[in-house]
Amino acid sequence: MKQKLFFVLVVTALVLTACGGGVATQAPVETEAPVATEAPATEAPATEPPAAEAKVATFIWTQEFDSLSPLYQGMWFSEITQQFWLCWAWQFNEKNEAFPYLLTELPSVENGGISEDGTQITMHLRDDIKWSDNEPLTSEDFKFTWEMFTDTKNTVSSAYPYDNITSIDTPDEQTVVINFEAPFSPWLANLWQGILPSHILRPVYDAEGTLDNAEWNLAPTVGCGPYVFDEWESGSFARFTTNPNYWGEPPKIDEIFVRFVPDDASQTAALVAGDADLGAFIPYSDIPQLKEAGMTLTTEPSGFNEGWFFRIDDKSHPAMHDLNVRKALAMAIDREAVNRDLLLGLTKVPASYWDSLPFYNDPPSENYPYDPEAANALLDEAGWVDSNSDGTRDKDGVELVLRYGTTTREIRQDLQAVAQQQLAEVGIGVEISNYDADLFFAGYGEGPAANGELDIMEWSDAPGFPDPDVYYWLCSEIATDENPAGSNWFFCDEELDALIQQQSTQMDANARQETISQINQMFHDNVYWVGMWQDPDVWAVGPRLTGVKFSGVTPFFNITEWDIAE
Amino acid sequence: MIRYIVNRILQGIPLLFIISIILFVLMMNMGDPIATMGGRSITRSSDRVRLTRQLGLDQPVYVQYLYWLIGNDWAKIDLDGDGIKESNGTRRGILRGDFGTSLVNRGKPVTKVIGERLPNTLLLMVASEIIIILGSLLVGIYSALRQYSILDHTITALSFIGYSMPIFFIALLSMYLFAILFKRWGLPYLPTVGMFDPQVGKTTAQVLWHMVLPVFSISIISFAAYSRYIRSTMLEVMSQDYIRTAKSKGLPRREVVYVHALKNASLPIVTVVGLDLPLLLGGAVVTERIFAWPGMGRLFLDHVSRLDMPVVMGILLLIAVAVILFQIVTDIVYAWLDPRIRYD
User: Fold this and answer.
1) What are the tens digits of pLDDT across the range A69-128?
2) What is the C-alpha to C-alpha distance for residues A333 and A322, in angstroms, rounded to an integer?
3) How far A498 CA lies from chain B's nearest CA (Å)?
């Protein structure tokens, strides 16, 4: 009897296990309309294998999407996927220059698309653009997108830049008139990155009062790009197939299969083994191995640079207020050697926060050279000397020991070790600390950076690429008890503040360039930020893929031209 | 026995309640879920203020716990930030079966997030556990019956090697050897990552083929440990008087070993397996990550790194419930294996 019971238990367990595997093959979310990708809860093939002649390109993403809706996306890997199935009003080419996509032309003052005072932008849509269900894509979709981004009933990841818009007029189906309270110069790099289908989502919003729970967010039935969303299996893959109603040039590849592989080493192994055609965020140390395996490695500037952010206020070490000390910090680290040794010479030291925007980094900033002797002289001149012979400089009884914190990323910890050693050689002590990203970047009251517990903070950041806009350093953004959400964790410089505000309203590119140049010069002269290495997007492209070009803003701007060479 | 089981389940309820409070408070002090919502840049201050309010993170911890437990559909909340609580909450709380929605996959119910991954983990872990138990039983018994033989020494040496290797090393080494090098050498090779080849589709054969390396990696360490454990308990039992008596009675060797000895030697093993089984639900964090297997371990890592409190709490509670239930099951199996144990 017991043996029988045991046998029944084993068989039941196996059946349950088998059924379990089948359940996992179901489409992750129900869609608003019945879709062919839903599979029965059996172990039969849940996803129809592509036809034998179908061209399938396999991409590896090291992070899974959070959402497919532009409203709720907070991850780069989610955003770049929009070029497959959704559309931006304009895209950016391999030179990071904007070109119209849904529009007939880009608005400008010259063509009357931007008003003289810069508070109104008028866009004219193409008359042949349509959604994948053949519904026309109109100005109503643009207005609806703005409404949803700014509606407080939606917990959108960021309402920026739509919260700068005061109203939108839609005089006809092809015209969108955007009104601002004040001129908004960073519009080109920020607006209309993912349009929402009003005819699908407005009924959902009207019924539920929010789009937070719309099934479209995770399984969009309708898009407007060259591909359409087909399936997303949680933790495993997402599949995009060609859009039969695409209004543009049809893509050459039949299917984009995105596989989520969170481990860097596994991504490299899969690429080397030929199990994938494209990988992103490749660790520098794996580049030689991938090249040897026949992959093409491409680095695409995306505005990001790894650098040191300095805290200069009453919470920071008093030495941080001293320009000579900040200059000494820049000159005591051999940043060229860091790039050469830690990053295999594949990156360069950025001289400016606007390093990848040559138009705005003009005249180009010059890096402080590695010169420990000059650093020592600057520190001596500032009165920081080792009076108690403990190996660390001091002044007025205060030891020159700085708190240097960053995230747990391995390369950052490597740099911390190097910096600690090299700064010790000029008599600057460093207390290093590392935090998980969600703690390091936590807001005032929780995060060490926001709370002023660090003198030197390190991460990779960019201006509003390809726009030069910056806002962290605004005095109104200083995080305090009264303004705990503030994102200025550094200092308040009234002159810098005025320039930052000025550039954000300058619609004339040349005038804005002049202002950014002044800001750039202030950053350099006052050593407000020290660049460590350029942080471009690194792509590994397999030998099967042809026609591949990348942009730092919209990486897949020419995805329809990509092909597979069998 | 039934009374015993009911009592144990009732005792588990306050235990779960206490566990949930501890986990919730710990989670709330681990960081800021809003911090990573800004993508590659720091979350804008205006968004930080709005999201903190909309997601209820501006409430004191005990209020957030209360809402998580019993919901907030009875309370008014301020959505638009004008200081006036004008809208009704929408959460019903876990006591009414609402585990909330994910902060990362905004709007997706926690039960659905977990439900999509759990079968994948069970598929991987149950297969591994079966291989571990059956394999270690065979090897452990064989080693015990042929103590100090060449094969016993070999198995012992291999067990120590297997046990001393970290799982990430085994996983990456096996991937490199069986997937990359075998392919390079023109031999039949295994896939590196995922559950199936997109060119072929998700067939049963494909899933089984893709399970080989992860199951091998998960099994090897536990297999080494279990087989050593079984060997030692079998050796101890085989020297007992009643085994000698059974042999003297002329019982066949197979019956002596597999009926009389193994059953008694199984008692301590059941304890170990009983403790391991609930952890199956948590998945194999390292293995799932390396082989890109879409299981619970990866789900936990992905969501804990972004402080997706509803999902993480759901996973932790599921494991807590499993631990309690499997302990009860272990006790029942004890009674089945050893008639001297009585719970009534």
Assistant:
1) 999 998 899 999 999 999 999 999 999 999 999 999 999 999 999 999 999 999 999 999
2) 18
3) 19
Give the domains, in start order, of chain A with CATH numbers: 1-23+52-86+225-301+537-566 (3.40.190.10), 94-199 (3.90.76.10), 305-534 (3.10.105.10)
For residue B254, which phi and psi values (nearest 5 degrees)? -60, -40
Give the pair of three-digit tokens for residue A350: 């950025």
- Share of residues in chain A with pLDDT > 90 (%): 83
Q: Which of B199, B289, B302 sits opposite A56 (nearest CB)?
A: B199
Distance CA A140, CA A128 (A): 15
Rg (Cα) of chain A, in Å, rounded? 27
- Check if the beta carbon of residue B114 is closer than 8 Å to that of residue B311: yes
- Return the structure tokens found at A268: 């490299």
Q: Which residue of B has its CA nearest to A448?
A: B31
- What's the CA gap between A176 and A184, in Å, rounded? 16
- The answer to whether A559 and A251 are in contact (CB under 8 A) is yes
Tell me the two tokens of residue B83: 């200081």
Task: Give DSSP secondary structure letters for B216-284.
Answer: HHHHHHHHHHHHHHHHHHHHHHHTSHHHHHHHHTT--HHHIIIIIIHHHHHHHHHHHHHHHHHHHHH--
Give the H/E segment covering residue A71: none
What pLDDT, in 10s, does the model give residues A434-477? 998 888 998 898 899 999 999 999 999 999 999 999 988 999 99
Query: What single-letter amino acid sits at A207?
Result: A
Query: What ipTM was predicted for this assembly?
Result: 0.86
Q: A203: exposed, middle or buried (C-beta count within 10 Å: 0-12, 13-18, 19+)?
A: exposed
Q: The pTM is what?
A: 0.86
Q: How confident is the model at residue B343, as a pLDDT?
A: 65
B169: nearest CA in chain A? Answer: A265
Distance CA A86, CA A200 (A): 14
Q: Which one-letter DSSP state was computed for residue A320?
A: G
A82 lies within 8 A of chain B by CB: no
